[in-house]
Amino acid sequence: MDHISLYERIGGDTTLRALTDRFYDLVFEHEQISHLFKNNKEEIKEKQRLFLTQFLGGPQLYSDIHGHPMMRARHMPHAITEEDAVAWLRCMAEAIGELPLSEPLKEELFSRFPKTAFFMVNKNS
Question: Cα separation of 68 and 12, whole Å?
Fold first, then answer.
């Protein structure tokens, strides 16, 4: 039996566009972490969508356009604390919670983020 990626099981690009739209609305309004996102919101959303496509088992769109993700290196210029990672994860949890997916699928999707979010921490509180 062929493996069906999480990207495909959540509905692919349509779902990722809805997720990144809602997620970045929450992030840009969040008092704790909005300062970490200084670039153009649409540009940030597009890069995140490309990355998540790849991260969740879809086409390697991010790498095709921007090269290897090197996520920790790309985040090093920004001072990111554990509290920032928690706030980021809360925004992601809320955005995922609003998707029209089954609860088990929402849980599986969210489970992909904590390890990566805490890997970005580069500053003590």
Answer: 21
124 domain residue, yes or no: no
pTM (two decimals): 0.91
More confident residue, 121 or 65: 121
Q: What is the pLDDT of residue 1?
A: 42
Q: Is residue 1 part of a domain?
A: no
Left if phi > 0, otherwise alpha if psi is -120 to 50, otherwise beta: which for 117? alpha
In the structure, what pLDDT confidence band is assigned to residue 39 with cuts at 50, 70 and 90?
Answer: confident
Residue 101 in any domain: the answer is yes
CATH number of the domain where residue 20 is located: 1.10.490.10
pLDDT at residue 67, rounded to an integer: 77
Nearest to 56 by CA among 20, 100, 87: 20
Count Cβ atoms within 10 A of the Cβ of residue 70 and give its class: 0-12 exposed, 13-18 middle, 19 or more buried.
exposed
